[in-house]
Amino acid sequence: MDFFNKTGKMAIGSRLRLLTAKVTDDAAKIYELYKVDFSPKWFPVFFVLSEDGEKTITEIAEQIGHSQPSVTKIMKEMTKAGLVKDNLKSKDKRRNVARLTTKGEELAYRIIKVQGADIDAAIDGIIAEANHNLWEALAEWEFLLDQKSLSKRVQEQKKLRESKDVKIVEYHPKYQSAFKALNEEWISTYFEMEEADHKALDNPEAYILNKGGKILIALYKDEPLGVCALIKMEDPHYDFEMAKMAVSPKAQGKNIGWLLGQAIIGTAVALGASKIYLESNTILKPAINLYYKLGFQKISGHPTPYRRCNIQMELDLKKNNISNRRFYESEEAHPA
Description:
The protein is of the alpha+beta class. It has helices spanning 2-7, 12-33, 43-52, 57-64, 68-80, 102-129, 134-147, 150-163, 176-190, 195-202, 204-207, 256-270, 285-294; strands at 54-55, 84-89, 96-100, 166-170, 214-220, 223-232, 240-247, 275-280, 297-299, 311-316. The protein has two domains: 34-147, Winged helix-like DNA-binding domain superfamily/Winged helix DNA-binding domain (Arc Repressor Mutant, subunit A); 161-333, Aminopeptidase (3-Layer(aba) Sandwich), CATH 3.40.630. The chain has 13 helices and ten strands. Helix 4 (57-64) crosses helix 5 (68-80).
């Protein structure tokens, strides 16, 4: 259809609804052809009862993927048509169930055995004429969408597209206010600023950079919306601490945390590091999930200057075979 050629794939829902409407209209005509007084929307419920004998409304709803109110409404309609008896006691007398009447059982044979055989043959004919097997494709799409919904997939594409406008650059004094403000924002939201925070944020050159560390800035359309530091550690077990990662709330969904984390890890590798350490708090669930995704694993027992720390993690760069890559751009590419 020309309309769907113009809209492209974004109208997939409308196209499927139109196809469903065509098939449903034909289904009504097919029941008339076989002189069966039956509504197409009843079929899933009717089929379950014909196969299983008796079921509760909840069981039917779960089996066919409908809501309980929808099944209840269909059940009332079929009861009125004399095909179903509802609110019956199960054989063990413990549940209220529904089952087909004698009329319903007789109709089930006509619909499923006789009419169904002709429908199967007709659909097999369409499959033989078509280049693609729609029946198999539907099963495949249902499986794939169960694994990851269309909305989730679109969200990922949105994040990927927007992340292309993110640039990771090295620290420059002009970013000191952003480095401080972004960290103060998230710390004050969940905790309280501590002495170690003030030292690092008020004078990052002395506390981080001059001691062999690095600070990276995430620019989204040239606005600093994310920051992260790599702090040199005087510890025989760790080379650097990944710290002071903060992303502006208005930058959510742009993959900035992931890009910063990757860039910091790449920087550590370039500096010859073998292990990176970090501290956090389990209340920060998105951050903890990000750290696990980056390859960090939980550890314990390391001394910390922060009261808010209740989880410690490490990333073994050699064990994870993380190689040197360039994740950020030089500051010269973004002059003041």
